[in-house]
Amino acid sequence: MSILALNCGSSSIKYKIYNRQKKETLCSGTVERIGIAGAFIKHECPGAEPLIENRDCPNHETALKLIMEKISGIEIHAVGHRVVHGGEKFKSSVKITPEVLEAIKAVQDLAPLHNPPNIAGIVAAQMLLPNIAHIAVFDTAFHQTMPEAAYLYAVPYEWYGMYGVRRYGFHGTSHLYVSRRAAALLGKKPSEVNLITLHIGNGVSLTAIKNGVSVDTSMGLTPLEGAVMGTRCGDLDPAIVLFMIEKEGFYAEELDGILNKKSGLLGITGKYMDRRDIEKAAEEGDERSKLAIEIEAFRLRKYLGAYSAILGRVDAVVFTAGAGELNWQLREKVLTGIENLGIKFDKWKNQAATSRENEADISADGSPVKVLVIPTDEERVFIEDVEAILDGKYETHTHFTYSFEDPNYKRKKA
Asked: pLDDT tens-digit profile of 65-82?
């Protein structure tokens, strides 16, 4: 019996096929730079050289068809789908019914870069793989442990009651995975650790984790709030929106597109949303690319300070996701000058930690707070949630034990 895990991000789709009987990954891969020039698929199977193929992928539907082409011949019995926004309705993973799909569609405006491709992935997969179980795994579920003081905004309280205006948080499966792995690496139970986790990909979010659960996170009602991202602005003065409406006569839809798709690193540089492109341009002397790097690092440092204050005691800071795992230059900029928080890193260990497979401790000797780089494995969470639902053994994450919590767990390369 094989399970397909699908993770549709704003500019990528990651996938993994897991065989339950053999308890092994059959293949995995990613389609990157969707909607950007230079899109490609990387398909990996154990014992074989990775297949990398350049293919034009203007949208997520095209990318999903490409994945199905590469995995043809494998019988799939269930699919786990990443769904970014579940609102308050979904506090755990669920089997997708027509009613569940409609509820996901009902909140898609709150995650305009993600829920639409998530929905497109579900619909396409259901068409290509009918008559099997499709399970939704929600980014927002991990953050349902936040207290009211963290998730409510200082706006008229009626907005919460009428429209659900509150902080939801995202990248939940990633923060869950790396926090459980961090606890294992620290030799503690998840309920014993305080962590600050940084998921730095095209989308960026930080989470303050106290006694193993989320107590605050940087993204809000939508994934637009928080740190500087690839194309999203992150935190800003709300009056800027009113100011620009007055100056330019923008409609709500236009501003939504600008703040979600034309801001962040792309807005600052005017050219690039991918940090690899920005790093290259900065090295070649592009001043706005240099500025974008400084602004991003500055904002991340602010959050580290704020979350250190919220947690009181911090056991570890954890970097994950594409740039968090690979971009040692960004990590160095973020970590430099915050020794007063007890966060001290080793420059050479940091430069050596550029793998999407291996976990690394980049702490300086004697650092009161550990600094870890842990490659995320959201698909592993999807697979274990799907297995548990199929077996009738699923519980919410606060009461569920995952295989990767074992100190001896070894992530297998597909």
From this structure: 899 888 888 888 999 998
